[in-house]
């Protein structure tokens, strides 16, 4: 399954994202354990200390995840050099000596299996994760827009008295910012919105419905949020929750941070009011007003359960600890981790094998071996101590099963590579056939241009042209059949790969004694036999050159009624050139090549007549009547006329009096 929009990102980025999301799960468990320790050991500490520790823990998690992502991007890809694949490749692979298994623990092996399974579906996981965070980002933008809407719509000025009161309370808390206080007809609870230009929104009628001390307590709490820059921190915290929405540990720690944030603001507000009873009454009054408040604004009262905890903390001067649900979940996680670690570690421990003579002992472990090695292994087995004989046999069986599974997996990879090489060979064969047909056609055209005056040769050329057309049809049929055979083989090989994957899993279950019946190994597909390519037709041969025309009987050198034609042609290599006029005797091949070029120029429409024609042709350029021809025409003429000698230089001048 492929997803087109994932292709917009580099493959190493997608793999790095998948690994980062995987590692964030178990790192989140460690983070939850650290957070639990912080909550348990800081019951009597200040809310500010607990908030700073929890925030530092969350920032440390984000930093670790960033490092994991960067290292996953920069991690070098494992490169495997595949051997040359032939028809008997599986037998060659099985004949190789097995790789000695690593001494990793069972926990590490199972962790690698889970990681490999995760990496196998990394594209799908990253796609789902990306779609969900896109939806959550839209939700975040909608929440911020709702806060902005509350600041701009249905708001009223509270009056000069409350503006002065805001200024007075700001000076007590050491705030230097300009803060606006507005009454909102939409807000149901006091809240703070904005970072650069903060605004405190009070529900319409609350300023007159509560006592002066209670309103001051509420305003002090909201000013504490502004002083601590909680609006900005809350948005950044929301972004972290969006990225790691699937991690319950991060969501739990984020909730604890929000609770401790309110506790910190309560402590700052109490420094302004110095009356806990009034402050608690203000909290209860705001709870009565509360309905649905925006998620990303700093509300005063918070949730109903959180309100009870805040009041209890202020009354008893004791911070909240883990509740029953949190303690139960933490205990289950710890017990499960210990049991899984102990179980996997116990499975990985095996008794050591005491062998004498290392070189001969290793031969007894080889799966595919000759008769000589069997004799040596028989002799060597007698040197094993009696106490370790059973352990040695069990270890050999386990190692043999693991090596067999490794060989089967290697067979799957080699079959896939063999399919790719077969397809590449088919493509190269088709290209060679096409080039051969093009070359034959060019040779036929050259022969036709050279011997156009011979009637028998024209007949042979027509027959050869028909043979060429038939040959092209055979080539097309050959290519189609070859591609069809390759596709059938690819389907069978893919089916074999899937069956081998099932067989490998069943073999592993059989090795672990989960099933009693050993699985049946699937039969690998037989590669298709190569088809015989069609034989190209033989071009016609011109045995004898055409005889030159006979000179008229009444011809005289000075006859004015006879047109005088002068021709000059020359042929040269890179350093030598020869020229001849029409009256000088020249070899037959030179004027034939020049005439062929002239006829081709006339056929291609470069010239309209062959009279008064002059051209110069070599591997560098083609000049006709003083005009340099385009590179495409020059390249085509080089391939056609200079194929046997690239350094040839042809010049021809034909004038008619």
TrEMBL record:
Domain Peptidase M56: 43-312
Keywords per UniProt: Membrane, Transmembrane, Transmembrane helix
Pfam short name (any one): Peptidase_M56
Transmembrane segments: 20-41, 53-73, 121-142, 231-253
Cross-referenced InterPro entries: Beta-lactam_resp_regulator, Peptidase_M56
Region named Disordered: 509-592
Biased composition (Pro residues): 519-551
Low complexity: compositionally biased ranges: 568-584
PANTHER family from the UniProt entry: POSSIBLE SENSOR-TRANSDUCER PROTEIN BLAR, SLR0241 PROTEIN
Identification of the protein by name: Beta-lactamase regulating signal transducer with metallopeptidase domain
Species in which this protein is naturally found: Pedobacter nutrimenti
Lineage: Bacteria, Pseudomonadati, Bacteroidota, Sphingobacteriia, Sphingobacteriales
